[in-house]
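Let us work through a complete example step by step.
Step 1: write down the sequence.
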Amino acid sequence: MIEEANTGIDIRAINEKIERESAFIDLLRSEMNKVIVGQKHMIDRLLIGMLGNGHILLEGVPGLAKTLAINTLAKAVDGSFSRIQFTPDLLPADVIGTMIYNMKVNDFSIKKGPIFANFVLADEINRAPAKVQSALLEAMQEHQVTIGEETFKLAPPFLVMATQNPIEQEGTYPLPEAQVDRFMLKTVIDYPSIKDEQLIMRANLNKSWEKVNAVVSIEQIIRARKAVQEVYMDEKIEKYILDIIFATRYPEKYNLSSLKDLIGFGASPRGSINLATAAKCYAFIKRRGYVIPENVGAVVHDVLRHRIGVTYEAEAENITSVQIIDKIVNEIEVP
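Step 2: predict the structure and record it as tokens.
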């Protein structure tokens, strides 16, 4: 248990409050598990993104229930859902909306695009050209959209879950670092186990999926987001997070000189902000009012794998950002 001495903070009171506020998490999980089988990691990351006011980049081959997962989450929290299939001929107006001339009133009216939803699936995001990427960027970063001269705020919660296929690279546009950095998490999902896939196969053949009900309200999610901010993070945990981030920039200062030629660029300040936020969210979904080092370790790969640029030398040696993170986490002293 974290010491209460010298902090002036009542950890016990925070813990009790978080336990109350996070009571809906189990309910939400069990509702999603009605149709999502064997993707616990993905469900937890979706919850972290939603509670942390962030966005998620999901990487995985087709058919791993990525679309189904965010659609199910939207139904379970009674939120609006929209899906944008990204293609090379997509225009910014197809995402954010446009101004349409109305002959009857001899004026322009605004037609809002699919970005105006609580949960937005940006399917195969790396197929869209740069102009579409930049239109999506404003919505993700500023939580607002500009059409013509008017700016519209996006209603909370607003979560973009983008997907990209790691295998098919023909006809795709690599996401610019500036945009990738806007994603709080990049989660790589794998195939289900043979036992889980048997359940998936049976349910599909028998058409026996249960109906997903709205078990949580938008107001509860907004209240939970405020509660997440109250999750206590000790100064030692803050220092631990900063050491991990700074080790991606200056590995030689952390007894990791072997990584210096393998890292092209390290994590930005968004990395430390998102790692701290994700750790708080993880503590919240574990129904705990304070962050422990294991919470940081649980989310560090998802937060940093897309924020570390590997050099050509690392690529030549088949060294990935995940392996670099492993070395850093193993070296940095745990508080």
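Step 3: interpret the result. The two ends are 13 Å apart (CA to CA).
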